[in-house]
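Supplementary material to the annual report.
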Amino acid sequence: MIIVGGPASNNIDLEIARIMNIPQITLEYKTFPDGESYIRYPVEKVKLSKETVVIVQSLYPPQDKHFLELLLAISTAKDLGAEEVVAVVPYLAYARQDKRFRAGEAISVNVILKSIEFAGADRFITIDIHKEESLKVLSIPYKNLTAMKELAKYLAERNYENPVILAPDRGAISLAKDIANILNTEYDYIIKVRDKITGEVRAEAKTLDIKDKTVIIVDDIISTGGTMALAARCSLASGAKTVVAVCTHALLVGNALDRLRESGVSDIIATNSVPSPVSKVSVASVVAEYLQSII
Ligand code: R5P
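Predicted assembly:
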């Protein structure tokens, strides 16, 4: 098995190779003056022929470019004789466009996944995909790993006082449950409630009393920070003592960090599936452990 670091591996490939004690190579890459992407395997260093080649390439912004580089890397590994190509994509971009919200829209996640398979991937691995059901479009073996155990370990070391875990909506409840089970705390999700008299919409924990608690809000993605900021504000309005924001993929678009801080969040913790100032937890061990189990 050889681990290959793509241009958007965020060094996760290096860590996986170190943990597993197996060879690693880094793809050469550049952008031509007209904007086209180029990748090259340093074949003078290692032969791919008859090897299982594990390509690590996350799809953080610029996601279209990183996606194309991934397809080039997969297809070229096959051309160079790899026996099996495993695509490790810690953050799968486009996963939120998983249905036609409006007639005529592209179901982008299907196109992305099918293209990865068409390029020659024999196996697909990702982490905390927006919806696991999206992977069913693949006909190759796939695995959606979760970073919740690693994030929970990090949170446990912080020794927060009276922690409870909240999902900002029902869709993220399984993430909240995973962390709560490890930390042995209660969990809940936030619902939007409309005041019958004023018509005003507010958000609150569905059943849990969060007064004087450290509320740890968990989501798969923080993009603009809007969802998390709303959840933080409503937690504080419901009496939470402190709010900590946790996610797997911290895209942090534009002024998301300021937005979160202004909403009262005191700490933000994410994984390195996307590089960011709050990417404090590595997903490498989760991937390495899984690769070890399929060797
Ligand atoms: C939505 O269903 C996702 O799980 C996230 O809650 C959402 O994508 C976060 O986006 P933003 O940070 O822009 O609110």
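The chain has a mean pLDDT of 96.
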